[in-house]
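User: Hi! Is it possible to get a structure for several chains at once, not just one? Here's what I have:
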Amino acid sequence: MSIILNHVNYIYSEGTKIAQHALKDINLQIGDGEFIGIIGHTGSGKSTLIQHLNGLLKPTSGEVYYNGRDINDKDFSRKELRSKVGLVFQYPEYQLFETTIFADVSFGPKNQGLPENEAGLRAFEALRSVKIPEELYYQSPFELSGGQKRRVAIAGVLAMKPEVLILDEPTAGLDPMGRDEILDEIARLHKERNMTVILVSHSMEDVAKYVDRLIVMNGGVVAYNGTPREVFSHYKKLERIGLSAPSVTYLVHDLFEKGYDVDVNATTVDEAVETILNCFKK
Amino acid sequence: MLRDITIGQYYPEESFIHKLDPRVKLLGAFLFVVSVFIYDNLLGFAIMTFFLGLCIVTCKVPLKFMVKGLRAILFILILTGVINLFLTPGTSVFSWRFINITKQGIYNTVYMIIRLTYLVLGSSIMTLTTTPTRLTDGMETGLRFLKFFKFPVHEVAMMMSIALRFIPILIEEADKIMKAQMARGADFETGGLIKKAKNMVPLLVPLFVSAWRRAGDLAMAMEARCYNGGEGRTRMKPLKYQKCDYIAYLILFIYLGAMIATRIIFKADTLFGMYS
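Assistant: Yes, the chains can be modeled jointly so their relative placement is included. Here is the combined structure:
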């Protein structure tokens, strides 16, 4: 089970003067149960890329395969695909529309054709897993705070029990605590359900902490594709394309240049603490 | 999907028409629309077609792009065509049971379809070649004389520019919400009329909520910058006539002259007229 992108190109408004070549010859393979981070500058093609994964956008040329089948084939059910590949858009709280939170979260499962009670059960589970207090379930989603709305919207996708979960900057505009809560929750779901997770993010610290593999997009092409350690070892080149490495990468590099024997590949705070302590123990 | 809507859109290009002062283009579009309804003989239509063709060629916007805008009025075109074809009284050409097609009916249909098509093409040349800001600037300066009659020109122009600015924003927003709901399994395509209308709820509710929010934000931002109407406001790019604008005015006056001349020389009942 995997997603494969084969020579995917995408051009907005093709054939006019305002045409934009958003994706250029993308080749990627996303395996089962992976936790992948996608980073890149604004306009680098991240959002366009993820919309190809559940068939919302059709490549101008090239193919996207889900479990070995071309998702843009005529007889391939894209509705079914969307219930397997869940996509949480940027600022998902703006898609809430129902009269109660509970009804809004059951919207997805109901569209999957599940009976009322089954859909309700899914909604209940999803709301509990994003830690929305039960007394709010039958209130209007428009009365919630920004962070709570965001969690309800994520629950709306989780309730469909997708095999692959794609999140486009799920923490944009949240306070640090809300950010950690949401990301920890996603990491837990990844572990417990063995769900494939693709996280689009601007925060290097977040991706360094959670993901197994990092894809760096720049100007519509894949610039780097590897573990966070590999990718952040190119931190000088990352700066050239408008990105940066986590702060600890800079710290350990500076220490190393000053003559301390630290591991320059540390990317998370924990790893940095360990290598610095080791260095002083010696 | 929704990005394909081209009415009111601006098409960036470097051309003679793009460079013209918006006031010239507004007057031009106005004259053209009037002429579409004044010309009623073959010669008139020939002049009109020539003028429109000239504009299309000089504005460098691909014809394909303009014709896309016609798709929106296709239904109106067919409806007026059918009504004119079957319901115009006159000398019968073809009749079968209750269907009666007259010579006048055929003329009316052809003229009506040409008129509506030219109307849309003519006005879309103006919007395709002028940014909304310049368009409302032109309207504000061009209609300044109405202030004399206590008409709030600046306020109306400001409202118009805000409304125009919001069209692409709302289209983009609708596109985004639509995709988000499709990702949750919503279906906007299949089903009968009532089911389709019901399926629009997940799109329309968030769209309205966001429109209200944006309107509130904008009002707040304008107040924060002490906006209080047009009195004493200056512009970053004041409108100023160039040489090409005078040339365009000259062409427009020739067109106007031709319009009046053909109307006087070829009356509707002469050889080239409509009801010959």
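The CA atoms of residues 52 and 189 of chain A lie 23 Å apart. Chain A is about 40% helix and 20% strand.

User: Great, thank you!
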